[in-house]
Design brief:
Length: 62
Protein backbone atom coordinates (compact mmCIF):
# COMPACT_ATOMS: atom_id res chain seq x y z
CA UNK A 1 0.00 0.00 0.00
CA UNK A 2 2.85 2.41 0.79
CA UNK A 3 4.35 1.77 -2.63
CA UNK A 4 1.10 2.64 -4.41
CA UNK A 5 0.66 5.79 -2.27
CA UNK A 6 4.23 6.82 -3.06
CA UNK A 7 3.71 6.20 -6.77
CA UNK A 8 0.42 8.10 -6.70
CA UNK A 9 2.12 11.07 -5.03
CA UNK A 10 5.03 10.99 -7.47
CA UNK A 11 2.63 10.99 -10.44
CA UNK A 12 0.67 14.03 -9.25
CA UNK A 13 1.38 17.04 -11.55
CA UNK A 14 2.19 19.39 -8.65
CA UNK A 15 4.59 16.87 -7.14
CA UNK A 16 6.28 16.29 -10.49
CA UNK A 17 6.77 20.05 -10.78
CA UNK A 18 8.27 20.25 -7.28
CA UNK A 19 10.61 17.35 -7.96
CA UNK A 20 11.70 18.95 -11.22
CA UNK A 21 12.27 22.32 -9.52
CA UNK A 22 14.11 21.04 -6.48
CA UNK A 23 15.47 17.74 -7.81
CA UNK A 24 14.36 15.87 -4.72
CA UNK A 25 12.03 13.08 -3.75
CA UNK A 26 8.63 13.82 -2.26
CA UNK A 27 7.85 11.07 0.21
CA UNK A 28 4.14 11.70 0.63
CA UNK A 29 1.44 14.22 -0.12
CA UNK A 30 -1.02 15.34 2.53
CA UNK A 31 -3.59 18.09 2.28
CA UNK A 32 -3.31 20.18 5.44
CA UNK A 33 -4.48 23.65 6.28
CA UNK A 34 -2.10 26.59 6.54
CA UNK A 35 -2.41 26.82 10.33
CA UNK A 36 -1.64 23.12 10.79
CA UNK A 37 1.32 23.31 8.40
CA UNK A 38 2.75 26.31 10.26
CA UNK A 39 2.25 24.50 13.55
CA UNK A 40 4.06 21.38 12.30
CA UNK A 41 7.04 23.31 10.94
CA UNK A 42 7.43 26.13 13.43
CA UNK A 43 10.67 24.48 14.55
CA UNK A 44 10.54 24.89 18.31
CA UNK A 45 7.02 23.68 18.99
CA UNK A 46 5.73 27.21 19.50
CA UNK A 47 2.31 27.60 17.96
CA UNK A 48 2.44 30.02 15.03
CA UNK A 49 -0.68 31.94 14.11
CA UNK A 50 -1.63 31.87 10.43
CA UNK A 51 -1.92 35.26 8.80
CA UNK A 52 -5.63 35.68 7.88
CA UNK A 53 -4.66 38.20 5.18
CA UNK A 54 -2.94 35.44 3.21
CA UNK A 55 -5.01 33.58 0.61
CA UNK A 56 -5.89 29.99 1.43
CA UNK A 57 -3.50 27.32 0.12
CA UNK A 58 -4.19 25.75 -3.26
CA UNK A 59 -6.05 22.47 -3.02
CA UNK A 60 -4.10 20.08 -5.28
CA UNK A 61 -7.21 17.94 -5.78
CA UNK A 62 -9.44 20.81 -6.90
Amino acid sequence: DNSSRYQSAQNHPLVRDLVRRFEGDVISREVVGRAEWLERFSGDGVRVQADPAQPPPIDPDA
